[in-house]
Write a structure and sequence with these properties.
3 helices, disordered C terminus, alpha+beta, 13% strand, 3-stranded antiparallel sheet, two-stranded antiparallel sheet, 113 residues, single chain
């Protein structure tokens, strides 16, 4: 199955899609941020990818924008101090690198390879 390319939507439309498809948290703006539990990145509503078919042949879905991460809204939480501290504490205890807490960008995801 071929991967679907992210849809290019107007900001208003993208916000409406996020509000409709994220049954777990309320979105008031695309500037809001979420912490992805799957990849450990902080992502914004603007960065989140909407995939599917606007003609109704394929359902719309929202996924994490991080390269290789296809998490969905149930995997995203608000990036509170408590949430962001847990991976750091776990990394200190296990002597492993902490997850990256910067915004995913094409430059940063390809530069680390």
């Amino acid at each position: 199955m071929a991967l679907l390319a992210p849809l290019e939507l107007a900001e208003k439309d993208k916000l409406q899609v996020l509000q409709r498809l994220d049954k777990f948290r309320t979105w008031r703006s695309l500037d809001e941020k979420r912490y992805c539990l799957a990849c450990g990145k902080v992502i914004s509503g603007e960065q989140i990818q909407v995939i599917g078919d606007t003609r109704g042949n394929e359902p719309l879905r929202v996924i994490c924008p991080t390269n290789g991460c296809h998490s969905i809204p149930m995997d995203w939480v608000r990036p509170t101090d408590e949430v962001l501290a847990k991976p750091m504490l776990a990394a200190e205890r296990c002597d492993v690198p902490a997850p990256h807490l910067q915004d995913p960008t094409p430059e940063s995801s390809t530069a680390s390879r």
